[in-house]
Specification:
Length: about 375
């Protein structure tokens, strides 16, 4: 099968022929139909991902496809089933899973998958005599992927896989930050800083939660227009954040979401909430930088929270998102700026990097 390989940090991805083995115990071979290109893929290309330590690696982690084969013991999906490939496949048995903190599963298979291997340290991908690692156990910039059964969330066959793919990362991260992490209440005010592929989903999550004031902030005007289409009630071209927000909601908002991962911006989002307000860091931060916030603001009963992927429970949240999409309450088409074939993966990466698009989606014939 063909796959886009990262062979050298900072270099373009290379399309190559990759051998894929049959799925083993508890594994599923998925023919990938579509894969979004996400900021985390860019981080890996730049050599800034702590989980991409061995090359070559197949990137891509926001995907959906059709089950082609299943390994021994797999019972929840069968060949021909359509699935969204969740970013994590919880074990269901570790302490975190037992506490409902499924996104923090520390089971052996899950921890190995994060590093791109199976529990016994092997992978199902190779080229020549080189072992190829799939990014976080997925590797969806490829025609096929071998993933764990727990990552496969079955969906209706008549739903468009190129749109459902987006639920796996960008959508569940944004909407999950609102519904699972902050638990935004109806009638409240929300600030969203950073309106790219994930930020737009924070905006539409806030709409779903019943927030009545949704302020979208970004430094790019076109992204603010997009945020309005997703339900933002106000937009600010961010240059003086707490002040600009205060002019719309006196005293600050009930909730703030930073989707930039920039500590200085997060501090401004935090300062834009009123006493008792909650701020969630949704963006993944660059390493080696500290966050500085005045303790006096924290003393005002403000809360600061982190999240990984919207604290998603795949088997609960992905069907929920698919259902919201199918009932017309979740906009997925509006997130797609372009659809490209695998051969154009480097163009898609460049477009995401330039911030010109919400989501580039690689589609497979
Ligand atoms: Zn992602
Ligand atoms: Zn677990």
């Amino acid at each position: 099968m063909r796959a886009a390989l990262l062979r050298e940090y900072g270099a373009p991805l290379q399309i190559a022929e990759v051998r894929v083995e049959a799925p083993k115990d508890g594994e599923v071979l998925v023919a990938i139909a579509a894969s979004g290109v996400c900021g985390s893929d860019l981080k890996a290309i730049d050599g800034k991902s702590p989980v991409v330590t061995h090359l070559p690696c197949v990137l891509g982690h926001e995907s959906a496809g059709v089950v082609e084969a299943v390994g021994p013991g797999v019972t929840s999906v069968k060949p021909g089933d359509h699935v969204v490939v969740a970013m994590n496949g919880p074990c269901g048995r570790c302490r975190n899973c037992a506490r409902g903190r499924v996104h923090l599963c520390s089971g052996r298979t899950r921890m190995a998958a994060i590093m791109g291997v199976t529990a016994d340290g092997t992978t199902r991908l190779s080229t020549g005599d080189e072992v190829v690692r799939p990014y976080i156990g997925i590797g969806s910039f490829a025609e096929k992927a071998v993933v764990t059964e727990a990552m496969c969330v079955k969906v209706d066959r008549d739903a468009p896989l190129d749109l459902l793919a987006l639920t796996a990362c960008g959508v569940v991260t944004g909407v999950g930050a609102v519904l699972n992490v902050a638990r935004v209440e109806p009638g409240t005010s929300v600030l969203v800083v950073g309106c790219g592929g994930v930020g737009l989903n924070v905006v539409q999550g806030a709409v779903l939660a019943g927030a009545t004031t949704i302020i979208a902030a970004d430094v790019v005007e076109s992204k603010l227009d997009l945020a309005t289409r997703f339900g933002a009630t106000h937009t600010v071209l961010a240059d003086d954040l707490p002040k600009q927000v205060g002019e719309i909601v006196r005293g600050g908002t009930d909730y703030a979401f930073d989707v930039t991962g920039v500590p200085e911006v997060l501090a401004k989002a935090f300062a834009s909430t009123q006493p008792g307000g909650t701020t969630v860091m949704v963006g993944s931060p660059a390493a080696g930088k500290n966050l500085e916030i005045p303790p006096g603001l924290l003393f005002g009963s403000r809360r600061l929270m982190g999240t990984q992927g919207g604290d998603a429970v795949p088997a609960r949240d992905l069907p929920l998102l698919v259902g919201l999409y199918r009932s017309g309450r979740l906009n997925l088409e509006g997130l797609v700026s372009e659809r490209v074939p695998l051969d154009d993966v480097n163009d898609a990466v460049a477009h995401v990097r330039s911030g010109a698009v919400a989501r580039s989606v690689i589609v497979f014939g």
